[in-house]
DNA sequence: ATACATACC
DNA sequence: GACTGGTATGTAT
């Protein structure tokens, strides 16, 4: 069991890691290699005893083998002794020749191409360019360094093998078996026994079975995980009521305030809840607007919830000139202190206050907290602060103080200039030198120790550190007592580091990276880049193969090259990573930007089935939109062919939509367009998705946006004309299509007069588009040869051979097979194509999908019924549809910026 | 602005 | 014999 422990410690939890193949946590004692030599092309012999796999190795040595995106990631310590290659071979065997694998190869080639381009580009740099680039990079580094904030204590809590742990807790017999949780298509997580076979989260079941034939697969029970997750969150909330859940088993907390005096906070919880629920408007004392944080220690959770509820308010108010405070340069935490009716830009600060903010309530705590901050960083951390700025009455914007490090910076440049003099600036150069200038600030006490407290404070600081550890231990213990499940935690001054730390002593452990720059730099020095948030397998590959950088320090050493190769955004991000910088703002109230549904299915290649599926998805999406009271101005579809090629298409609607039929009307056209484009081949899909973006709150649409739309439409002669040109049956048709959902769509019961007007305008508009696809720019297939538009329109069913436009426009009768109604139709006039398209479009709009099934065989109908039943089952099983999405509501990719 | 790619859980 | 789903964001065109 010793080996068990040894490897368990590495285990990453149920991330839905797409790249499980490369994960360093393939801690498979079963496949431990007696030799620690990493298997490479010339060590293939080691695989001989795997029999079948060996064949593949041999075979793949020629060219198959070079799918490096399928290679294992060997960057992490503790990997010695694992034969990841054996696992890889089995996986390779299982997927070899599959469409998935072929697609992976294709993508690999694309990445390879990108890499080659970058390499070429890099070879062309002159020394002069590099010198300049380095200066630019150093300037950014200086700015970043100045913004370094070590004042927060961020905790990342991560449950150990969460789903698997839950299942084992509830069925102890599973503890002794290799087990995974998930479906046959995809596993969510696995227990430690299974991991020893290489069975991991994100792995399809059939491959897992090959790796571990005895594997028990337990079906997911999200209800249970969700319920337990709530219990866990109750504990977390005691430490930070504004904590940020990332998923059911993972969350970030900012326990800074808790550490400063938890009694106060707990006491406040009750009071605030009552008060706050009454009036939302007046209590925006906390929130983050345009990069400025209005912070008040005591109402975080509630205000956060409100802000969420009021996302719209924020946006809207921006329009009304209510709160706009722009922080120049980059996002920094700015504290707004105390009640006031205005914000002023203070001289010599990086702020531009363009609008005024009104905060109606005063919180003494703000002041208290502020003073605490002040004390913490006295003389160093906030050097710009003056007494005058503390004056009550006006909100003060306090930038995170800049740490003066110019001298250091120049030193750095000098060392570079020396290199330049030798004309030796190349990739790998600094490696050759053996001396990295990465931790340029390291050891320079003038910078670093000044951050910390003076001598007398040392003991106090130790106490503080102990307290931090104890608090987090207590938190984990509470979780365990409550749920019988263990959690691991990482504690650090920012989210990036906290996340890495939580992995360090997993399972059931914690790691505290103390808020000292030296310690951070040491910690980060050998950190594999892949660990950094935002660096996935592709970026890693680029960084290793182009920049020859595997760790943060190596990345830092190549900063001049980065500067020349990558976009400013990417560079800044990479620099932050290499300096161990990350977001210090556990930011909960982010607006949702999109909402989508997608499903994978057995091949669908018939247009009517495509449309039926699309309609289903629109319905689902519509429900979600309604549940969140959102409407969308952008509607998109996502298609994945049976070859795993993904296509996305979007349209911008003329007005925000929410109803199934509205969504469908847009999605349908996008879809039909793709069906046409793929002709004469049928569109063979394995996945379809519908997405809504540019969301706005429903209420707003009716009140503010709607009149605009109507007036716009009224002004627009062509729209008007076409609307009018609808014949009676079409009009009836369209209002029928839109009709069924009217009531649901309106929050306050029956339609208002305005709504009715709008509604019929909508329907008309949509129908017009339906009926005249060639007059609507969005849906016209200008780029497609017109023979495709016509006969190819629907998988080459035209019975008359033609090869050009001219042929089509002749008087020859042309016969089409309509893919929707299935009838053969013959057109004689010159515009047979147009007629056919019209027919199909009309056919489609008539069907509005419930009707689609009428045209299908009984078999098809049953299938559709089954699938709808299945969906219902699933949604009743997962009563947590909204709950399931909730963590995602708060999903934050924030990484400073 | 749209499409595609990458990333995260 | 056949590799998820939801969301965000960056990059290229």
From TrEMBL:
Alphabetical list of Pfam families matching this protein: IMS, IMS_C
Gene Ontology biological-process annotations: DNA repair; DNA replication; error-prone translesion synthesis
Keyword terms: Coiled coil, DNA damage, DNA repair, DNA replication, DNA-directed DNA polymerase, Magnesium, Metal-binding, Nucleotidyltransferase, Transferase
Any one GO cellular component localisation term in the record: nucleus
Catalytic reactions of this protein: DNA(n) + a 2'-deoxyribonucleoside 5'-triphosphate = DNA(n+1) + diphosphate
Catalytic activity, EC: 2.7.7.7
Positions in coiled-coil regions: 101-135
Region (Disordered): 368-400, 730-755, 856-897
CDD domains given in the database record: PolY_Pol_IV_kappa
Protein name: DNA polymerase kappa
GO terms, molecular function: damaged DNA binding; DNA-directed DNA polymerase activity; metal ion binding
PANTHER family, per database record: DNA POLYMERASE KAPPA (PTHR11076:SF33), DNA REPAIR POLYMERASE UMUC / TRANSFERASE FAMILY MEMBER (PTHR11076)
Bias (Basic and acidic residues) ranges: 368-395, 886-897
